[in-house]
Write a structure and sequence with these properties.
By secondary structure, the chain is of the alpha+beta class. The chain has five helices and eight strands; from the N terminus they run αββαββαββαββα. It folds into two domains: 158 residues, no CATH class; 119 residues, no CATH class. A four-stranded antiparallel β-sheet has the order 1-2-4-3, with helices on one face. The chain has a four-stranded antiparallel β-sheet with strand order 5-6-8-7, covered by helices on one side. It starts with 13 loop residues before the first helix and ends in a 5-residue tail after the last helix.
Length: 320
């Protein structure tokens, strides 16, 4: 059960507080609820509806000007799921997905949020659920949803129900980082706590449906400082040279990625060694000119973007 008090959104802790706020709205609308058993619906949701829960969206992927953004993951009701043994999908599964995604989008739009489904839609025969991107804009800013034409080169999200190897976009960036001078290794246990002088990187994949339009080979390149310069809450002061180390390491990573042909993007909120343990770049390459459009899929249409212009001012604060 939810409390009657809306959680406070704290911009300095957008992941924790943003997820709490969106989940509060979902639970108030009987669209989400606390649960541990993912094979059953939460007790406070009527049977047959499926349910939704907010999950983090890296800030590097947030829409321009957004001061809050999450991914809302929709899980269909058990009756409308693919049978794991036979691969059979109920005949009305697509209708169930569309109806429940529409219900979620409408409910959150009524609370002043912008709701969109990015990329090629996930499908009941290939995926365990679908994702909506939910975000909030300051007063006076109008959403700019991705038009359908932006999907002409869209890559379908990797299926949940098929074996998959390591995404090729990861090792491509690993090679770039390993060849840097000084090297920006991908995080490896063999490194231990060895210092490189420029920090080191962990490369994470990004779901294809979240890739920016017209982009390919998208990853998150997460820079971490050398051990001696890491944030230590038990230490009242930072190690001398920490700010310079951060500046050198982040600049080196940015130059390395751009020189390899990647377009990079950082989060709008500044990173600082006083408050953060790392700093990340969204790194993507543009789809080469002359690439043929992706084959037209006969799958589920994307959920229509939702926002209520009249509600924006009443639910949002102006960002200074």
């Amino acid at each position: 059960m939810t409390t009657n008090t809306e959680p406070h959104y704290e911009r300095t802790e957008p992941v924790r507080s943003g997820i709490a706020l969106i989940n509060w709205h979902l639970e108030n609308n009987q669209l989400g609820g606390l649960h541990l058993d993912f094979t059953k619906a939460p007790q406070d949701i009527p049977e047959g509806r499926g349910w939704c829960r907010a999950q983090p969206l890296p800030e590097e992927l947030w829409p321009a000007h957004a001061d809050l953004a999450v991914v809302v993951r929709f899980t269909p009701a058990p009756l409308f799921r693919r049978d794991a043994r036979t691969g059979r999908v109920p005949a009305n599964a697509v209708q169930h997905w569309m109806e429940r995604l529409d219900a979620c989008a409408d409910a959150l739009a009524d609370q002043g949020f912008v709701v969109e489904e990015w990329g090629v839609p996930k499908m009941p025969d290939l995926h365990a659920g679908a994702d909506l991107v939910v975000y909030r804009l300051p007063v006076g800013i109008t959403p700019a949803p991705r038009p359908p034409v932006d999907l002409r080169y869209g890559r379908p999200p990797r299926p949940n129900f098929k074996e998959r190897g390591s995404p090729t976009e990861l090792w491509k960036v690993d090679c770039v980082l390993a060849d840097a001078d000084p090297p920006l290794y991908r995080y490896d246990e063999r490194q231990g706590n060895a210092a490189t002088g420029a920090g080191r990187c962990l490369v994470r994949s990004v779901d294809e449906n979240l890739w920016p339009p017209g982009a390919t080979d998208c990853v998150l390149a997460i820079w971490e400082p050398d051990p001696v310069y890491r944030r230590d809450p038990s230490r009242p002061t930072m190690q001398p040279g920490t700010y310079a180390h951060w500046a050198r390491g982040i600049a080196h990573l940015g130059r390395t990625l751009m020189s390899a042909g990647y377009q990079i993007r950082r989060r709008q909120r500044p990173t600082s060694p006083r408050t953060d343990g790392s700093s990340a770049f969204l790194a993507c390459r543009s789809i080469p000119e002359g690439t043929p459009p992706s084959p037209v899929s006969g799958g589920r249409p994307a959920t229509r973007p939702r926002w209520r212009p009249g509600l924006l001012a009443s639910h949002q604060e102006t960002i200074p």
